[in-house]
Amino acid sequence: MFDLKSIRIQGGCPLNGTVRIQGSKNAALPMMAAAVLHRGTTVLHNCPRIADVSFMEKILRHLGARTSWKGNSLSLDCSCLQNTSIPAEYACQMRCSIILLGALLGRFGRGAIAPPGGCVIGKRPVDLHLSLLEAMGVHIEDENEMLKAYTSGLKGRIICFSRQSVGATEHGIIAAVLAQGTTCLENCAKEPEIVWLAEFLKGMGASVTGAGTERICIRGTEKLHDSEFTIPPDRIVAGTYLCAAAITRGRICLENPPVSELSAFLGIYGKMGGQYDVVGGKLIADASRAYGPVTRLETEVYPGFSTDLQSPVMAVLTLARGKSHIRENIFEDRFRTAQELVRMGAHIRLNGRDAYIDGVKRLSGCQVKAQELRGGAALILAGLAAQGETCVENFHLVERGYERIQEDIAALGGRAVVEE
Ligand code: UD1
């Protein structure tokens, strides 16, 4: 199903140069799903051309949407959707496809989807998504490995999530847009992508208040209209490139950086010895002394430190001058990259949700395997700092979220070649 690609990296060269940060993956995907609600056209500008966006585009085409690209602008014409069922061949490629169910229910009162897939980083159940829909008056059956859902009309309700989930919060907002009455979601996640989704929906004519807080209210509306939205820059990609500077002790400049959304990361970056300045809308980072260990780092829901940047930071800490400790609170199985870093010479001990890293003087290039998206990016970073050549297999996993990372690395003076 995927091209078996690898990326071959020659390490040992501090990165130096300027890159522009691509549009956010985690903003683009729920917006694409939400476009299903509207019998018309939605245009997303600055949309990243990455594999996950292509998967979502394929699903929308399967449902009957007409899609087209002009540069990084993606046009989604959902006026003629007829299909409401998403089989496993589509759904299993991407976990967030589950939120299409709420969009289909809003538009058609029915929908079916195979249980979704995505990065292998833990159990990742969808119980919050399903109980949310049930609370809004949806009947769901699990039949022949398909979740089949139907409703005589989504109903606005007060729904309190038992835990904060980015996807379930987005799902709740999308499902409520065309529901009867007002939906109030409580204990919501507060990630910036949720705020952007709300802004995007408001631009289509929806009524959403409170996004970015724990309580979001959506007043149901009957009709949406054509809209255009520019996707903000990807905070995880920006953080990854700052880690690339740190691990190679380089100096880089990020154009259009999402500075305020990176504040927890930048706090850790400072602890590592990285310095930065924001001048004229650019972030100029000097990581030439980013060799400090981090005695304790915990992943948290936003505004805490993002789990998506845990692996890239772990890669940097393998070369720190001292001992570091990372606790992963969000996903129970997100340390798979550690074993690959150890193959490159890192000293990492795992104990459940804790990783203890003892900085080494050097990493050595070798053949390693990306286990998931962000972990794959972390291995590329390790390769940039290692002695000799590193070959990261399963590069298709990295392409899920990074738009031509090899070109950005080249723009920063690094050497990386993608091989089919
Ligand atoms: C989103 C992001 C992902 C990021 C994650 C946490 C997208 C496309 N993906 O994923 O990059 O790593 O937020 O910031 O935006 N959970 C349940 N039941 C559910 C749903 C979630 O128990 O029904 C659990 C998950 O297993 C996990 C935790 O809640 O342990 C957080 O997951 P969630 O916030 O839902 O992450 P995603 O939306 O999948």
Structural notes for this entry:
The structure is a single chain. This protein is α/β, with parallel strands linked by helices and 420 residues long. The chain folds into two domains: 6-22 and 233-419, Enolpyruvate transferase domain (UDP-n-acetylglucosamine1-carboxyvinyl-transferase, Chain); 25-230, UDP-n-acetylglucosamine1-carboxyvinyl-transferase, Chain, CATH 3.65.10. The chain has helices at residues 25-34, 51-63, 88-91, 99-108, 127-135, 166-176, 192-203, 235-248, 263-272, 310-317, 336-343, 373-385, 395-399, 405-411; strands at residues 6-10, 16-20, 41-45, 66-70, 73-77, 85-86, 110-113, 139-143, 146-150, 158-160, 182-186, 207-209, 215-219, 227-230, 251-255, 275-279, 282-286, 297-298, 323-327, 347-351, 354-358, 367-369, 389-393, 415-419. The strands form six sheets. Strands 22-23-1-24 form a four-stranded mixed sheet. The mean pLDDT is 95.
CATH topology of the largest domain: UDP-n-acetylglucosamine1-carboxyvinyl-transferase, Chain
Kindly provide the name of the CATH class of the largest domain. Alpha Beta
- Helix vs. strand class: alpha/beta
The domain tally reads 2
- Tally of DSSP helical segments: 14
Biggest pleated sheet: 4 strands, mixed
Query: Helix proportion of residues, in percent?
Result: 25-40%
